[in-house]
Amino acid sequence: MMNTSPCRRLLQTAALAIAVHLTLLASASAQEPEFRLVLDREFGGMEDAELQVTSIPLMAVSAHGQLAVPLRTSRQVALIDVDSGELRVVGREGRGPGEIARLSNVGFAGDTLWVVDPSLGRVTHFPPDGSAPELTSAQGVIERGEGFLIPLPLTDELILSSRRMVSSADGGAQEIHGRELFNMTGDWEVRTRLVELRPELERLRLVHESVRSVQLGPHPFSVHPLFAYAPGVGSIVVARRADDPGRPIPAADVTRIGPAGDTIFHVALPPALPEHRGPIEGETIDAIVEYWVSIPQLLERFPSAAVIRSGIEEGLDPPARHPPATQLVLGIDGRTWVRGPDPWTGSVVWQVLDEEGVVVARARADRAIEGLAADEHGLWGVVLEELDVPRIARFRLEPIP
């Protein structure tokens, strides 16, 4: 387990600064962000009573400027018109059409909002004109475990993400994270195709209706995997650590996979880190330790040079400490947003990939921004205010002069 004490965190922060300096010294100009994320729209927060919720773990945005935010405390969903700020709340408590007992995810098919309720085993469809919601039974799909459905109207498919516990070889329980694809025909017949990440196999695989398996992507998705999807895009994106032991912070392998199991693109992104500012005393761990020991105020906080060295070496340990991608968002416009390593303080760097996997922008952003969705205008996310009240915001790319 990682030691998260303030002293250890300070040592690891220093170690990350060393890693940034040594890793990017030769290519700092090439990796320097040319954009920054600036506030474009915001909703909720301390002054908005209707959108005051304790947490916002997910959201969905439509191509027509609608934003859906689950209100978990009231079992409802807030629909926000991005341009006008008009708010409409859908869902109801109790029995009957529109009831949401336990929301697990939301999505848009055009202007129609989909809400998934695994406890009731159904998907509720809220038309944009406010007419009565329509219900779609999904009991046969969801009863196998926790999950949520995401409509993909361009491919006439839905994605179900599920978690299940299975027995591992040593007799213990092991959790499987998966993506299940469902083809929804006009009469709502369901044909199952399963995409799952199996830790014991270290592979992401697609199981078709014929139950044949194919390997997806050129590399296993075993270390620090992240998933992203967007309604209407018709694919998923996976990011993992590249096998690059020569770097303190290795590259991120990013693979985009189509619904048929085809690899749309596979790229290795170099570590995207904010520019390090200020001098680094010494070029090696020995020099850093010697410098720290020479400062009485720092030495008072750590019992010995050995402890300082241990903390710095632990901070430089790539397998457990510094995942190359810390957030992953697939926008409804087809672009992929990859958040780089988190230096714990200051800013982070988001890399934006087009539909072919080419980096089209690198943007510096406050590390407090949690990206949850994206559209052609920018990145949608959450920023915590005082008392940890989440504020919904969209951030656009602005060139750095």
Model description:
- Helices cover 14% and strands 41% of the residues.
- The chain is mainly beta.
- The protein has a single domain (33-271, 324-399), classed as TolB, C-terminal domain (Neuraminidase).
- The strands form 5 sheets. It has an 8-stranded mixed sheet with strand order 20-21-22-23-1-26-25-24, with no helix packed on it. The protein has a 6-stranded antiparallel sheet with strand order 10-11-12-13-14-15, with no helix packed on it. Strands 2-3-4-5 form a 4-stranded antiparallel sheet, with no helix packed on it.
- The radius of gyration is 23 Å and the shape is globular.
- Residues 19-30, 138-224, 276-283 and 317-321 have low confidence and may be disordered.
- Rg over alpha carbons: 23 Å
Give the averaged pLDDT, no decimals: 66
CATH architecture: 6 Propeller
Outline type: globular
Which regions contain 5 or more consecutive residues with pLDDT less than 50? 19-30, 138-224, 276-283, 317-321
Number of domains: 1
CATH superfamily name?
A: TolB, C-terminal domain
| Derived structural class | mainly beta
Q: What composes the largest sheet? A: 8 strands, mixed
Percent helix = 10-25%
Number of E-type strands: 26
Strand adjacency order, main sheet: 20-21-22-23-1-26-25-24
Give the helix tally. 7
CATH class: Mainly Beta
The percentage of residues in β strands lies in 35-45%
The end-to-end distance, rounded to whole angstroms, is: 43 Å
Looking at the structure, the CATH topology is Neuraminidase
What are the salient characteristics of this protein?
7 helices; eight-stranded mixed beta sheet; 401 residues; six-stranded antiparallel beta sheet; Neuraminidase; mainly beta
